[in-house]
Write a structure and sequence with these properties.
Elements: H1 10-30, H2 33-49, H3 59-78, H4 86-91, H5 103-110, H6 114-125, H7 130-137, H8 141-161
Helix pairs in contact: 1-2, 1-3, 2-3, 3-7, 5-8, 6-8, 7-8
Length: about 160
């Protein structure tokens, strides 16, 4: 079945309302403006051609999951894996003006393993609940909680070292 999206399409509405967050999240994986735009565009195409969305209420975690998989596929092809921190992401958000760039946080986050950075970025910078993070990353909620706890512990240690 070929879908013809319109303004009343829930996917079109979601993307339109969340384009900056989607871009920032894609950027957190690739740290490149053009690559992030490509990932968002590919994700939109995948979402519009997919038949997997059964519940409009779950669109946020469903779409972020598409971005995660698209970004990981891209990184595998590029053989580079990096997740940006909040400071870098805010620099690329046209709607955000931050007087204080927290270089220590940026440095510490960049030194965390990807599995911890991803959980922290989704939970705190994309404001997702633990269950949503688990859905996006295909993890058990207890695994997310463990990685979040361990990631924050590592982050505190790295911040103390800086």
């Amino acid at each position: 079945m070929h879908r013809v999206p319109g303004h009343d399409d829930p996917i079109v509405r979601f993307v339109t309302q969340n384009k900056n967050s989607l871009y920032r999240f894609a950027y957190s994986y690739v740290l490149n403006c053009d690559d992030a735009l490509d990932i968002v565009q590919d994700s939109i195409h995948k979402a519009l051609t997919a038949e997997a969305l059964r519940d409009d209420a779950a669109i946020k975690s469903w779409f972020y999951k598409i971005i995660v998989h698209t970004a990981i596929d891209f990184l595998r092809r590029q053989k580079k894996v990096t997740v940006a921190d909040d400071s870098t992401l805010q620099l690329h958000d046209a709607n955000h003006y931050d007087h204080y760039k927290d270089i220590d946080l940026e440095t510490a986050l960049n030194h965390l393993p990807l599995e911890y950075r991803s959980v922290i970025v989704l939970r705190y910078f994309e404001d997702m609940k633990i269950g949503e993070v688990a859905k996006v990353l295909d993890l058990n909620t207890n695994t997310v909680k463990t990685r979040l706890y361990k990631g924050l512990e590592l982050l505190r240690g790295k911040m103390a070292d800086i």
